[in-house]
Amino acid sequence: MNKINLTALSNTIVERDHAVITGDGFVNSVVPGWTNCEVNVVINEAMGANFCQLLITLNSQSQLKGKTQHSQIFFYILEGSCDLYLNQNKSKLKKGSYAYVSIDQSYTFDKAAEGTRVLTFHKKYEPLEGHTSPEVLVNHESNIEQTIYCEDPDLLMQNLLPDENDLSFDMAVNIFTYSPGANLPFVETHIMEHGLIYLEGQGIYRLADKWYPIKKGDSIWMAPYCPQWFGALGKEPAVYIYYKNVNRFPTVI
Ligand code: UGY
Ligand code: MN
User: Fold this and answer.
1) CA distances from 48 to 14, 55, 201, 205 (A)
2) pLDDT surpassing 70 at residue 228
3) Per residue in 146-204, pLDDT tens?
4) Which ligand has the minimum distance to the alpha carbon of residue 206?
5) Residue 172 CA: which ligand 1 atom is closest?
6) Using CA positions, which residue lies closest to atom 9 of ligand 1?
7) CA of 195 relative to ligand 1 center, distance in Å
8) Are 232 and 182 members of one domain?
9) Number of independent structural domains in the chain
10) d(CA 147, CA 241)
């Protein structure tokens, strides 16, 4: 078949209450303190979101050096390996490792393998009376048990942060694994916002009243109250890692 690549085509769409970002339109950003790396701002407040999601590509010369201020940052290694210095401690990170950097903490990532890819979620921390801000945390997804979601053994959930077991956390990051053919049991419509990236597989996502084919590498933004549903297609599990705001009073009224 004669395949013509038209540069005027893209699968990325950005709507008022959701977005599907496929990476074909990425343009790099420069971030002060983060050197010799490629940074793509996938989701942020300019889009209407209340959090930020980045994709960062590193090499052996790269360094991500910074200090969190009013926002906490969750780092997840999608591919490759690197070193992390956090709170005087050095950790070796590999695919599936993650680090939660709470407010007011200094961090440095370096010594990355060529092509290491890092996902980040940033959220402004909302303090809660009677609780202090969470400590930093470094872990690997393989240490987190998979629990059955909505009584369907074909839907498995991993909570990478303590979220509802520790109200000092105001964000959750979960890995959601769908067996081939599995689907969300109903169209969710909720106050919480999501950002996600597909780690494996493919399927169809319903966002508001539209339906999108989704595959590994694609990212999605869902604003609060964006109706959402997913069904996994193909012969492999579909897996995504996603952000969610949690544990705070739902209104200022
Ligand atoms: O936690 C959630 O709200 C999750 N079930 N939503 C989603 O996967 N779109
Ligand atoms: Mn949801």
Assistant:
1) 10, 19, 28, 20
2) yes
3) 999 999 999 999 999 998 889 999 999 999 999 999 999 999 999 999 999 999 999 99
4) 1
5) 1
6) 228
7) 10
8) yes
9) 2
10) 15
Contact assessment for residue 89 and residue 102, using Cβ atoms and an 8 Å cutoff: no
What is the best residue among 184, 198, 199 to mutate for testing ligand 1's pocket, by most ligand atoms within 8 Å of CB?
A: 184
Q: Say how many Å lie between the CA of residue 92 and the centre of ligand 1.
A: 30
Q: Are residues 117 and 41 in the same domain?
A: yes
Pocket test for ligand 1, best of 228, 229, 247 (most atoms within 8 A of CB): 228
Instruction: Determine contact, residues 241/119, Cβ cutoff 8 Å.
Output: yes
Q: How far is the centre of ligand 1, averaged over its atoms, from the C-alpha of 208 (Å)?
A: 14
C-alpha distance from residue 42 to each of 161, 203, 208 (Å): 22, 20, 20
Ligand with minimal distance to 189 CA: 2
What whole-number distance in Å separates Cα of residue 18 and Cα of residue 47? 9
In a domain, residue 3? The reply is no
Structure tokens at 154: 């074909």
Give the model's pLDDT for residue 52.
98
| Domain end among 102, 119, 142 | 142
The residues that bridge with 174 in the sheet, in sequence order, are 159, 242
Give the Å distance between the CA of 107 and the centre of ligand 1. 30
Here the tokens at position 121 are 């979620």
Q: Is the pTM of this model over 0.90?
A: yes
Q: Any bridge partners for residue 147, and if so which?
A: 157
Q: Is 163 in the pocket of ligand 1 (CB under 6 A)?
A: no
Centre of ligand 2 to C-alpha 108, Å, is: 32
Q: Which residue range is the domain that position 190 belongs to?
A: 145-245
For ligand 1, say whether the CB of 188 is within 6 Å of any of its atoms. Answer: yes
How many whole angstroms separate alpha carbon 142 and alpha carbon 146? Answer: 9
